[in-house]
Design goal:
By secondary structure, the protein is mainly α. The protein is built from 2 helices and 2 strands; from the N terminus they run E-E-H-H. Helix 1 packs parallel to helix 2.
């Protein structure tokens, strides 16, 4: 490498010559140092990014695991609020939501037990009602048969009384002296 500069009053020029390796060595050393500092900075940035990402994703991962447990039916799953404020609020809201769902499921189970018990009671009452209705139907049929028998017996008694009244009239007529007038016999009235 060479360089020159003019000396104005003398009309001279100064010429300096040096090997390129000697002139460029400090620049190359600075370049190597700059590359090393950039790589070191990138490594530190990646390390801090990983730590901050892990700090942020750990609560999210715990929340996702708890949500999977709830999907599988574990309503006792809860999340410890940690991490940034927003994630702590999300964890607290998740815990409240699961507690509310657990309470609702308990109420549904209780209502189901009540409905099942009531359905059993209704079924038993319906069976008893059907049995009572059958007994009443049998009693009505028996009463109807008794009434029919009573009507036949009453008719038979009425026929017998009519025959006896006729015989009594015949007997009276045969016992009365000739020429006497007798009052006609009164007949009993039956409903």
């Amino acid at each position: 490498l060479a360089g020159y500069d003019g000396v104005g009053a003398l009309g001279w020029a100064i010429l300096v010559e040096q090997p390129a390796s000697a002139v460029l060595t400090p620049a190359r050393n600075g370049q190597h140092l700059a590359i090393l500092l950039v790589l070191l900075g990138a490594g530190l940035a990646a390390g801090f990014a990983y730590l901050f990402a892990a700090r942020t994703t750990k609560p999210v991962t715990a929340l996702a695991a708890a949500a999977r447990s709830v999907v599988d039916g574990d309503l006792t799953a809860r999340v410890t609020p940690e991490g940034p404020t927003e994630l702590q609020e999300l964890a607290e809201a998740f815990n409240l939501m699961i507690a509310d769902i657990d309470h609702l499921v308990s109420q549904v189970r209780s209502a189901n037990a009540t409905v099942t018990r009531s359905a059993g009671e209704l079924s038993a009452a319906s069976g008893q009602l059907a049995a009572n209705a059958h007994e009443q139907s049998a009693a009505v049929a028996e009463t109807s048969a008794t009434m029919e028998e009573l009507a036949r017996t009453s008719g038979s008694i009425a026929d017998t009384v009519d025959r006896l009244a006729g015989q009594a009239s015949d007997t009276r007529s045969s016992l009365e002296p000739p020429g006497a007038t007798a009052a006609p016999p009164s007949r009993p009235k039956f409903p």
